[in-house]
Amino acid sequence: MISFMLKRLSVAVAAVAFATAAFAQDYPKRPITMIVPFAAGGTSDVIARAVAEQMGIALGQTIVIENVAGAGGSTALARASRAEPDGYTIAIGNAGTNAASYTIYPKLPFTPESFVPIAMVAKTFGIIALRKDFPAKDLKEFIAYAKANPGKINLGHAGVGSSNYLICKSFVTSAGIDATLVGYRGAAPALTDAVGSQIDGVCDAAASVSQAINEKLVKGLVVGSTVRLATLPDLPTSAEAGLPEFEAQGWNGLFAPKGTPPAVIAKLNAAARTAVETDAVKKRFADLSTVAPDANEHAPELLQQLVTRDVEKYRKMLADDAKQ
Question: Which residue positions does the secretion signal occupy (predicted)?
């Protein structure tokens, strides 16, 4: 009897494996949706659109961008976690949405295990930019002004839990200042308010704020990088500005719902690798001061390691936020 049952189980397992392989071989048969956790125009959105276009070409199907803003990206990730694990719904995320959020929002309807990593697609650099009429010409003067006016400076970000929020937290902690951090539904609306002098400044990634700095719509204060950015050669690094403790180098990666077949993940990973190596994406990234992963940084396992590392990192950094 036991032998008979084992044979039936083996047949069932083989049948599932065969069906999965056949599904993956035909994948994708229709357009794929890529969920972006923020409003259009922000860093994640710009990167997603550049990568999605080239991934779609590699896969032979269109990848449709769906912007789902709210709760620092958690609204979008909740939607992605509930999607059918068939490879037709994926999401782009970062250290904020896929690591810090678990500390900031401890009752989320998803966990790190709710997602399967596909590939890291970009490395980003955080910048602090101020409204063009702010009364400080460099970081030293800004910190002095902030300390003389505790709680009166407001810096916009893409929502609590977003990578831009983490840039803000790292900056104010490193600078030892008391500033009000204002959350928006994405980086773009925060930048719009900074351009209009509705807020004092923004914590943003180079990908979405570089153009505004170059057009003098806002003034760059500092970049949390070890080297100056080619698109912003006059913007000092944190060390050059006198605040080496401020580090803001992040990542963007693609994720699929738990249960997505490994063969489908492999196809998506291959398409992502191809996409970031195209001249079109390289040029777009260069324009945005964003860097594509190195050849040895594309594996899903590496993205998983980044998530695991940053979950612990931000659990410590954001402990006070979790208590509120």
Answer: 1-24
